[in-house]
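Discussion board: Methods & Data

I've been asked by a reviewer to show the raw model output for two of the constructs in my manuscript, not just the figures. I'm not sure how much to include, so I'm pasting the format here to get opinions. Each protein appears as its amino acid sequence followed by a line of discrete structure tokens. Is this the kind of thing reviewers expect to see in a supplement, or should I convert it first? Here is construct A:
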Amino acid sequence: MEQISTNITDYCCVNLLTAAASADVPLQKFKQTVDIMKNIAILTGGDSEERVISLKSGQVVRDHLPKDRYRTFLIDIQKSDWRDLESGTSIDKNDFSLLLHGERISFDVAFAALHGSPLEDGKMQGYLEMLGIPYTCCDGYVSALTMDKHNTKMQLAPYEVPLAKSVLLHQGVGWNRDTLLELGFPMFVKPNSHGSSFGVSKVKSPEALDPAIQEAFRFGTEVVVESFLPGREFANGALRVNGEVVVLPITEIIPETEFFDFAAKYEGRSKEITPADLSQALTQQCQQLTARLYTLLKCRGVVRFDYILVGDTFHLLEANTIPGISPASLVPQQVKAYGWALGDFFSLLVEEAIR
């Protein structure tokens, strides 16, 4: 990627105003651009363990996108079987269209509500680009990069982004156990390219290390072993509106479980505080880091960055290019705190994709 200054003020125009002062401005500009009904393919389903979450996310998008502006279709992507969920009609992959009741429906935008493969890992974006269909998430390269936790760290290393120490393991290749033990306990073991905390373990002893590694290998051919960061956990979303990066309020995550695992994320076993109880200086540090990462990684659509605050420094855990979007999820909480309705937020993503 192109070398970019580490000083945020050198290169990034960031909207960090409060909701009361700024939330209406992007919406006013955006509403002026909506004049005709658009056909929206809400991409959902997918091939990974996150499929059940994607189906819920897709339905949330359909429920909230304004029906006076958009015709919405839930398109289930499952390996080579792509079809409209409501009618069961297959997608014509020659032009990504749908023949319903004698009408040939072409799509103005593909809305990204598919977590995991084949969208969050970047596989579908090239197909959509070849057909000239805009989509609401990062492009294929950025999606593939950020899905790979290790490569994301390697990409950001020259920019001195605070990160946990980690070691990458490859399936079928031996590893140096002493090198892993040097990371200290507790430590985290996680699949390198998977989301929703599937296969993630917090390891507290040498005896638990090998079983945790084998569990993580059930979800992919690469595993990251990562040092533990003692501190508070936070999440912060950002998107681009009318060409400017808008950083949302910060959420603090207080899991009831050992860490922010599947149960904490999707079964209500965590306390989430939005906006987070942080000093003005720490709030500014986190939001500026979010804007910086969004720009460095050349993100599009809404992206959520997860952090651990160690002392007075935010350390990046990972980037989520298709974050959860149910009303109880972190980004929708931040959207509400910013002063936007969920339907207007989804509309912003659609219209920004078309720009």
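Construct B, same format:
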Amino acid sequence: MRKGNGFAVFVRGDVVLLNRRVVGFLAAVFVIVSVVGLWPGAASAGTGEIDYRPLREDLRDYLSMQAGDYGFFFIDLRSGKSTGINDRAVFYAASTFKVPMTLYVYRRVAAGDLNHAMLLEMRPEHMEGGTGSLQFSPAGTQKSVAELARCAIVYSDNVAANMLLERVGRKAVKDYMTRLGGTVVKYEENETCPRDMALYMREVVRFAGDSPWGEKLLDHLRNTIYTDRIPHPLPDVPIAAKIGSWPLTGTYNDVAYVEHPKRPYILAVFSRHTPGYGSAVRAIREVSRRIFDYQTNPARPVEITLNGRILSPAEKPFVSRGVTLVPLRAFADAVPQVSLRWDESGRRITLSSTLGGVPAKAAIDPGEGGIVIIEGCSYLPVRHLSRLLNLDLVWDGKNRTVKLLSPGTGY
């Protein structure tokens, strides 16, 4: 099997891969209107509605314990929020490349400069092993552009992909990927990153709202025979997915559009240097399951008040593993009586307060003081913070509000 053309895919023969069918016309209608913003509530979902920091930290912890390297990128289509880990790291794309390639093919068909019924003839140089059945057809076999696109997605047929790529041109496809926002686009290598592949899948969803050819491509992706990764642990909702594998480097990938009934989303999970198929697929399934569950029951930002006054820090506290974490710098900036200073000599954070007219000062060792570092920012559990500042603490669960009170204020 040739690696150079970037389409080689292996799938373990002892794994049963079940095909997911489209749930029906109403589901398809929901897909289009929710993504383009016509579904009631889509525009009012609000970028602050859901806090994805707890999800990201949970997945960071999980993936750090897995053998091999992993990266993922997630886009919530209702709010536009996204998050990821190693999402710009370079991974071997394998057959996930067929997503932007067939997207480009169908875009040209929709524009009228490529005839979907045009017959392309199979030649010896198109032949390749791996997935798909066209490798068993004789040279001279003819297939239409539309049929080759279907085979490239539904069956991940390498020969079909080779024939299409020759017809439209590798450079043209790569240029198109760059126009869509791709940052890892190498003209002679089949490499990508989770963020780029998620953007390509998002463009497929948008295309489905614009053109019957986009809906046809989305239908191919919904009906792929390879559903062993992102779709596998999820309930019976429509999922448009495309896997890619390159076992020689322990690479097993998947990119999917998951039509969650409340919050549809895009997810791309990539791996490399894993021990093998079983280990990688288990990890991808677990990431998929946790994200779906989070979309069902998401964490939301926590409000914070001080002596009855609502604080509006630039970054809100959030709950992670049952603990409310407060961003220290944002909190100090929102409270004039509190100051924060980094002591370079002692490698400590100094927190000073004059709240309630009572001076308080505490030095916090980032390695021991309960501080959590997330993307270079320091967070402190709210109970630790209240103790350091000599404040009383009340949790209003109904309104998801932390109330900090100076002793004797009566709030």
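Answer (T.O., handling editor elsewhere):
This is acceptable in a supplement if you add a one-line summary per construct. For B, something like: Confidence is low (pLDDT under 50) at residues 1-48.
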